[in-house]
UniProtKB/TrEMBL annotation:
InterPro entries, per database record: MTH938-like_sf (IPR036748), NDUFAF3/AAMDC (IPR007523)
Classification via PANTHER family: MTH938 DOMAIN-CONTAINING PROTEIN
Cellular-component GO terms for this entry: cytoplasm
Name this polypeptide is given: Uncharacterized protein
Organism placement in taxonomy: Bacteria, Pseudomonadati, Pseudomonadota, Alphaproteobacteria, Hyphomicrobiales
Organism in which the protein naturally occurs: Bradyrhizobium cajani
Length: 118
């Protein structure tokens, strides 16, 4: 699996372009991000809630690579940060273009969450 590129509003993975935020599971499956799990608490998808963290996390995950948007606007809530820490999952938060490189080069058991706009 390879993430090929991102532009504002899109991400291309293995030749398929997605026009929404995505999660890449441990298995390599690409799924649409469930932003509503965070929006119901914060009114925005720019803060990752504990509910969304629970949805994203999978047993055996060593690393979450979180693409925080083209301009780096997404961040974790303190509760989500504590949740990942309690599971032993290291979180790397980087603007989406940088996070793509990190994801492609990481050999950890990883999940990717990529915000494709701001």
């Amino acid at each position: 699996m390879e993430i090929e590129r991102t532009t504002f509003g899109t991400i291309t993975i293995d030749g398929k372009t997605y026009e929404h935020d995505v999660i890449i599971r441990l298995s390599g499956e690409v799924a649409k991000r469930k932003k509503k799990l965070s929006k119901k608490y914060y009114g925005t998808s720019h803060v990752l809630s504990k509910d969304e963290a629970k949805f994203v996390f999978e047993k055996g995950c060593e690393q979450l690579i979180l693409g925080s948007g083209q301009y780096g606007n997404v961040h974790l809530s303190p509760e989500a940060e504590a949740y990942f820490a309690s599971k032993g999952c290291r979180v790397l938060l980087q603007p989406t273009p940088k996070a793509i490189d990190t994801f492609n080069n990481s050999h950890a058991r990883k999940i990717g969450l990529f915000h494709v706009t701001c």
